[in-house]
Amino acid sequence: MLDLRWLRVAAGESVGVTGPSGSGKTSLLNVLTGLDRPERGEIRWGEQEIWRLPEGQRDRWRCRTVGFIFQEFNLFLTLSPLDNVLLPASFRHLTPSRALRGRAQELLEQVGLGGRREPVALLSRGETQRVAVARALLFAPPVVVADEPTASLDVEAAGAVVDLLLSIRQRTNSTLVVVSHDRNLLDRLDRVEMLVNGQIVEPALATAW
Amino acid sequence: MINPLPTVRAEWRRSRAGASAVVVLIGLAVALGVAVTAQERGLRTGSARAADSFDLVVGARGSATQLVLTTVYLQSGLLELVPGSVLTSLQAEPGVAYVAPLVFGDSYAGLPVVGSTADLVTLGGTRPLAQGRVFVSDREVVVGADVLLSLGASFAAVHGSPTLRSEPPGDAAVHSGFDYVVVGRMPRLGSPWDRAIVAPVEALWRVHARPRGHGSDSEDRIGPPWGADVSGVSAIVVKPRSVADAYRLRARYRDERTMAVFPAEVLVELYALVGDARAALSLIALATQTLVVAAVLLTMLAALAERRRLLAVLRALGASRTYVFAAVWSYVSLLVAAGAVLGLVIGWCAALGFSTLLRARTGLALPVGLSGHEVAMAGALVIVGAALALIPAGLSYRQPVAAGLKS
Prior knowledge:
Shape of chain A: globular
Structural class of chain B: alpha+beta
Strand order of the largest sheet of chain B: 2-3-8-5-7-6
Largest sheet of chain B: 6 strands, mixed, barrel
Helix content of chain A: 25-40%
Order of helices and strands of chain A: EHEEHEHHHEHEHEE
Oligomer: heterodimer
Structural class of chain A: alpha/beta
């Protein structure tokens, strides 16, 4: 049971969520992004209660509003970085526009993989996660959620991904919600929420509480 | 507008080996059906074409099928001789354009040397030769299109049909001292006659010391008419002047000594047998295709369990249920469609290969091609595959995203 009565995330904030395994961190992300429906209460995006939207519109909202980054990347390993980044474009378009293609290229350059054409399977894990970051940012979403984005990486690669996430957030003023156990990552966020048994238990760490 | 093809392409690349195996399996199942139907149709067309120039064949009473196989397709078989009186009687019939006796029994280099007349070679003067001229003496022959003897070449025939003889001929079997000269070549007929050598029937009678029906003072004469002393023949090809004449002649020469058959009629009976075999093989092919598609479907359902997370990730990234449905449906349908196209190609190649083999062995050319039937058969499989693809697509459509992300 997840109790999120007092969780508020302001635009442009970077919020970390940590806690023991099974405490509901991933469920929190699913609820925030409209993948899981809360039993009670509302998830609002501005004035819009997202569970009042028809499913198709909710999907479109998620596509345009939320960028997802996963622990295990979840990329198509046989595709190039560019094809992976452009894949979400096929959810809405027959072919990606020139502008979208240009943005994908630009994002790959920003994450340091501009010239890479080989399949993602041939990249290092750190590079693979950077492709996933670029994919999450294709539609310039105002919210980026990341589920253990550094857990599968070595210290150096994890540091690079954290730098990347924070620099992009700073540049785009997007909201960042990160579920993580990585102290180095959490320490660099605006605030951190502790989740135990589905409840926020360290109000001292939550500035909005 | 959604476009699931990038996901389909990615999934194809991801599981290339397995997907290729599925396509090949479907392809082989389709090819079996295509090869059977295309081959059977080719056999009908080719055999009917080969029998075109044999309107009515008269032989000694016995098996009509054997008579047709021996005369039209030059398949060796023991035919009782038709008495010479039948030949003289037929040549005197008012409704006959020409009669061409056939005498088998000699060969050269594995090719049959058939005794007949110029009328058989030129269809009564209506079919020109490809090269040279028709024979005008009993030492001259006309060869089929595939016989490797050039004009002017000479040879001596040996006694015995090419396939009935179990041992190579000894010197005693060679008709030495009676050499033939090639003077003409028939056009390509697409029948076993392309590999035959046609000599004047009198030549075969002469080398076997039989009376030739021209009296003792016409030693070198060849061709009709023949007199009462003519020898018996293996069969007689009759060209009636009209359809009515054909039926009248067939009725008249069906008695206790002879039988008269329309080869086309005998072929229809053979087609009925071949058709039954085709129906059985088509049923087997259909069962195979059904089994393969069912196996593919089960494979896809098993694969879907592995893809749960991937599909949930697509949804998390913003893909609609419709997109996921379309991606899974397109992937399975395209695999089946690719298999069907591959099956058409393999089936056509197999039919062509069999046709080439048959032509090399018998000389009978089977026109092989894909018809609307084969394309419709493959199309039906694609439709069935597309319909069955709705099952995994529907399951993925209903899959909860959060549960999929945890899997």
